Amino acid sequence: MIFKQNNHRKWLAIIFLVFFFLLEIMIVTNNSSTIGIDHSIQNILGTMVSPINTKIFSAITFLGSPIMDSLYLIVIMLILFFKKKRITSFWIALVLIGGNIISFLVKITVKRQRPIGKIIPASGYSFPSGHVFGTTLVILTLIILVLPYLKNQTIRSLLKIILVIWLILVAVSRVYLHGHFPSDVLGSILLASTWWEFSELLYLRYYNNLKGLKLMK
């Protein structure tokens, strides 16, 4: 099995989901506190705007784009497949496809407009951020499914820190470039974490069915 039974997993999924829905409600109702926090953070990042910072964050936002995140997951999926970890590869594919569908459905349901004054072009709706959503899934995949294969504990810990820093950088880049509000990137992390936990629960629920399909390697 990829995952072991864990009673905390269900509660984590519920907690992430509840916080996501609360944030979504605050955004849909134009909650003044949410708007105030968004604008405060945007103003702080606005003081950092410079040609060099724009180039750096533009590069980060490209590397953390939905297309690149999908590519990273496909590469991980193929490597695991050829390493005879077929069920893990298959599961990642479902997480990727299902996650993209869920993120899209939330976008067209909430229909939040993007911030004004975009530094680089950005189309579509603002909530949630596809960049941060996809990056969160990539990082969770690496930390939970890939890094455990490394025997050196120090290297594993260092890579985990680097991956978390990368997520923060992608999130900051989206706000810096005025592609998203801070609440958008927070919502993306919550939504991706919710989907990840529920995906684990679905895997455990249908483990025997997958085994019957002889995908279990």
Can you walk through the features of this model?
The chain is mainly alpha-helical and 217 residues long. It contains nine helices and no strands. It starts with 6 loop residues before the first helix and ends in a 5-residue tail after the last helix. The chain has one domain. Helix content is 75%, strand content 0%. InterPro entries: PAP2/HPO, PAP2/HPO_sf. It comes from Companilactobacillus nuruki.
Number of strands: 0
Gyration radius, rounded: 18 Å
Portion in strands: under 5%
Low-confidence stretches: none
Domains, number: 1
Shape: globular
Give the count of helical stretches.
9
Structural class: mainly alpha
Biggest beta sheet summary: none
Order of helices and strands: HHHHHHHHH
Termini Cα gap: 9 Å
Q: What is the mean pLDDT?
A: 89
How much helical structure, as a percent, in the residues?
Answer: over 70%
InterPro entries: PAP2/HPO, PAP2/HPO_sf
Keywords: Membrane, Transmembrane, Transmembrane helix
Transmembrane segments: 12-29, 56-82, 89-110, 130-150, 157-177, 189-207
Domain Phosphatidic acid phosphatase type 2/haloperoxidase: 88-200
Write out key terms for the chains shown:
mainly alpha, PAP2/HPO_sf, 217 residues, Phosphatidic acid phosphatase type 2/haloperoxidase domain-containing protein, transmembrane, PAP2/HPO
